[in-house]
Amino acid sequence: MKLPRSRRITRRADFQRVRTRGKSIQGRFLVLGYLADETLTEPFRLGLITTKRLGDAVVRNRVRRRLRGILQRTGDRIRNPHWIVLIARGAAANATSEQLEKEWKWMLHRAPLTGGGSE
Predict the structure, then answer these.
(1) Which residue intervals of 1-119 are DSSP H helices?
(2) Which of 8, 23, 40, 46 is the right S-S partner for 81, CB 3.0 to 4.6 Å?
(3) Inside any domain, residue 31
(4) Based on the structure, what is the number of domains in the chain?
């Protein structure tokens, strides 16, 4: 299932807003940027960043597919409403789906997205 356009971050200004006003958590494979926004009507808006440092288009697309799959399985845990930007680090190119999911769940636990983390 594709994430609807209304749930994606597509504008540069929105990515910048999460970066400048939001908070971030760094992991081995991912960097999670998040920003609470009470004006959002959907549960969360997501932006994925996979740069050329990861590898060629095949590698970048594989990482994006894995991240979207993880979010489809675990996205219902996210407390409303947040802007979320996931940046794949270089090590994500060689990571398995299980490693990426484990790190994502760790980040969800640390961030105040599910109600379990600290602000």
Answers:
(1) 12-21, 57-74, 97-110
(2) 40
(3) yes
(4) 1
C-alpha to C-alpha distance for 109 and 58, rounded to whole angstroms: 30
Judge whether 69 lies within some domain.
Answer: yes
pTM of the model: 0.87
CA distance 111 to 107: 6
Angle of CA points 21, 102, 84, to nearest 5°: 20
Alpha-carbon 23 to chain mean position: 13
Half-sphere exposure of 85 (CA within 13 A, CB side): 23
Could you list the residue range(s) of the whole structural domain that residue 101 is in?
5-110
Closest of 46, 25, 44 to residue 109, by C-alpha = 25
Q: What is the CATH number of the domain that holds 24?
A: 3.30.230.10
Would 9 be classed as within a structural domain? yes
Per-residue pLDDT of the chain (119 residues; tens, 9 = 90+): 567 788 899 999 999 999 999 999 999 999 999 998 888 887 789 999 999 999 999 999 999 999 999 998 888 888 768 899 999 999 999 999 999 999 999 998 898 887 655 44
